[in-house]
Design brief:
368 residues; mainly beta; Immunoglobulin-like; 3 domains; 5-stranded antiparallel β-sheet; 3 helices; 36% strand; globular
Length: 368
């Protein structure tokens, strides 16, 4: 069996940077058609803006991981929004603001630096399913090669299952309620193999034992389970779920234990990371225990310390407390801090590759 099936990770995930110039903006040059697009102004206190091709790209489909706001509740029509995706990028347009000249603050404000993270699913083409008993109605678009799917559904208010289309069991499921002000609920096997615990993406809180979100039931190769929590399955409400399954040499989702040392733990991934997100699952120490995203584009040399915080609207930070190194086969923590390496605390992570440690031909690919 080949070490990896993905020699070029940019066909399925990438990071894009741009500096705003005002007005409408088209991003080009990706090696994939983006179906999930997450953008953030790096040097402004603006929202984390998520949109996807299942719901369509418009002002009313933007949601923010730093917010409980309903779909379209982040004033994207005022401050700019993603208006479509293309074979190698996406388009963005101005909002209607005239009072503070931030009509393109979310997208292309002059002299503002931006980052966009994109994942490829199925080009927006969905497979639909009907309500059956307590099992919600909805649809999914899945990329089985990359282990990723986008699932939208309407809740039933009672424990049921939802098809995800990946073909193997996802180890991470991120759900946002669209029609009420619900938190983002994160199930991750690094918390528990059977999804007995979950985290909230829009807060810095510790993991909680919660059988109402996923019914204490691990996803299978065909479905994930939701119970009756408001954040996952209220009757008649709409939801979006992003499901991720690990692909050797391309993605890995796991956990590590902090050692409270500048010579922190090494986390083996089997690839050189392009993107890593971490979260302390044991404690919540005010602003120092946030979710953190690192990538290889904003500061592509070690130590990588330009963190963006998915649960907050604040600008990116280059503080010493979030140092980490991206290595040929994993990442290594380089600071003693609650946020990513407090002694004895448990952390979960998600990671995507810049390139695999070994190609599909069995050739080491680290000499780049």
């Amino acid at each position: 069996m080949a070490y990896t099936t993905i020699d070029d990770p940019t066909k399925y995930f990438d990071t894009t940077l741009w500096t705003g110039s005002g007005g409408a903006k088209t991003i080009t040059g990706l090696n994939h058609k983006p179906d999930l697009i997450w953008t953030k102004p790096r040097n402004k206190t603006y929202n984390q803006m998520w949109s996807d091709s299942s719901r369509g790209f418009n002002a009313n489909s933007e949601i923010g991981s730093n917010s409980t706001a309903v779909e379209g509740g982040l004033y994207a029509d005022t401050y700019g929004y993603k208006s479509g995706h293309t074979a190698d990028g996406w388009t963005m347009v101005d909002g209607t603001d005239t009072n503070d000249n931030q009509e393109d603050g979310n997208t292309n404000e002059p002299n503002v630096n931006y980052v966009g993270w994109t994942w490829s699913a199925n080009g927006g083409s969905r497979t639909t399913f009907s309500e059956s008993g307590n099992n919600p109605a909805g649809g999914y678009q899945a990329n089985t090669t990359a282990g990723f799917s986008i699932v939208n559904y309407t809740g039933t208010g009672a424990q049921g299952t939802i098809a995800h289309g990946i073909g193997v069991a996802p180890t991470v499921v991120i759900i946002k309620g669209l029609s009420d002000s619900h938190s983002w609920i994160v199930g991750h096997t690094g918390l528990s193999s059977s999804f007995t615990h979950d985290l909230v993406l829009n807060t810095n809180g510790a993991a909680t034992d919660d059988d109402n979100a996923f019914g204490d039931t691990a996803p299978t190769s065909s479905v994930f389970t939701v119970k009756d929590a408001g954040g996952t399955n209220n009757d008649g409400q709409n939801y979006i779920a992003y499901c991720f399954a690990p692909i050797q040499g391309y993605s890995k989702f796991g956990s590590y234990t902090g050692n409270g040392n500048a010579d922190g733990p090494f986390v083996y991934t089997g690839f050189k990371p392009a993107w890593v997100m971490t979260k302390n699952t044991d404690n919540s120490f005010g602003s120092n225990n946030m979710w953190i995203v690192y990538d290889n584009k904003r500061l592509g040399i070690n130590p990588i310390r330009h963190g963006i915080f998915p649960d907050q609207s604040v600008a990116e930070s280059a503080d010493d407390f979030i140092y980490t190194d991206f290595l040929s086969n994993g990442f290594k923590l380089r600071a003693n801090e609650y946020a990513n390496n407090y002694d004895g605390d448990e952390y979960i992570y998600m990671a995507f590759a810049e390139h695999p440690f070994v190609s599909s031909k069995g050739v080491p690919t680290t000499a780049r």
